[in-house]
Amino acid sequence: MEAAISGTLKQLFETRLHSAMRLYLDTCARCGVCVEACHVYASMPQARYTAVGRAEVIRKIFKRYFKLEGKIAPWLGEVLTLDDATMDQVSDAAWSCTGCRRCMTFCPFGIDTQLIMSIAKALLIGADKEPKLLTMLADMSIAKSEGIEETKPGFTRAVEDLAPEIRALWPHSKDPVVTVEAEGADVLYVALAGKHSIIPAAAIMNAAGERWTLSVYEAVNFAAFLGDSKKMQLIARRIHDEAVRLKVKEVAIVECGTAFRAMKYMTGVHPFKVVAFVQLISRYLREGRIQLSKGTLKGTLTYHDPCQIARNGGVLEEPRHVIRHLTADFVELRPNRADNWCCGGGGGLVALGESDFRMKSARVKAEQMKASQAAIISTACENCHSQLTDLNEHYGLGMKVEFLSKLVADALMK
Ligand code: SF4
Ligand code: SF4
């Protein structure tokens, strides 16, 4: 590696050394409590797949350049110099971590390995070794805002064509069944690419009599996976500006954990409320604005808590409140809520498409699903839904994988 590049990487590292990060890098007691907490290690027991093992890669670079002992006596070991071999280790650590933060809840010091991995991802971007697909997807999201006025009429027409499918779920939907960026709405709903993320949500909001409108943007924030904080802000800014322009009171994020966490917790303060769509459904039920039929669902249901909505977003009880209105035949995954096993597809792994590691590293998840003996597994995150679907197939679990919003829309009492 050229000296100029390693110099740049060192500077990049330094920009991430805020007080919490220094504490995380200085504190680890190597007690190993986090080891079994990581689904990757639990499924593939190798030291490199422990939380502490991943963090050690970054900690050794930290010691080499930012601690006295590493600066004056690097030959004493326990340090890593920024070179190509080290960057391979950095890449292995960063892209085998889904950023689920389960390890953090077990660590007695609350060390946030995901945050430590944000240094790893920043270094990889600096060395031009990040996954280029995620960079391309993040750049496309940013570029979309620049040409939005040209694409908006086509998008609006395509969305209007969904009216029959929305009316099939909620026949009392008034015209227009869906509006795009309508002024005067209370709620801005931000969907994903694909009508499956619009139709059930539209039926539910119409049934609740919500004054809502659809964003022209997709909620997904590929830069959050990539660990590029500048691009993450730019992607979130498009939705922020749209919501401010439309003067909505609330932004409801489609069933996508990273999109929700990025918008609510990682991109500054907004002058509107940000909710996960499952929270909106729970509120409609509490306020008596929608009623559900308990007869629609056949078979035992379970629920997978998406890491970025549950453990990292605090949305734990709302999905269970919704499920109580859907069925009496519900069984919890064990463990669940903030302790739930990650699905194994987070942190951009589903978007990257590779499946061998994803399937092997989520063996404990598949075992947990199987042990529930449920016929249907629901979730409130697109990424988790994709991963659970792949696990279901790979491990031959024979379950149905459903979005919670779809189950709710199917059960709306007409
Ligand atoms: S539990 Fe915390 S202190 Fe113990 S090894 Fe893991 S990160 Fe370090
Ligand atoms: S954040 Fe999740 S995947 Fe990453 S080290 Fe911790 S438990 Fe493992």
Largest sheet: 4 strands, parallel
- Cα(first) to Cα(last) distance is 65 Å
Please indicate the percent range of residues in DSSP E strands (runs of 2 or more): 5-15%
Name every ligand kind in the structure.
iron/sulfur cluster
Radius of gyration: 22 Å
Q: SSE order in H/E notation?
A: HHHHHHHHHHHEHEHHEHEHEHHHHEHEH
Helix percent reads 40-55%
- Order the strands across the largest sheet as they lie in space: 2-1-3-4
| Overall SS class | alpha/beta
Mean pLDDT, as a whole number? 96
The name of the CATH topology of the largest domain is Rossmann fold
Number of domains: 3
Low-confidence stretches: none
Question: In DSSP terms, counting alpha (H) and pi (I) runs of 4 or more, how many helices?
Answer: 22
| CATH architecture classification of the largest domain | 3-Layer(aba) Sandwich
Shape type: globular
Oligomer: single chain
CATH class designation of the largest domain: Alpha Beta
- Beta strand count: 7
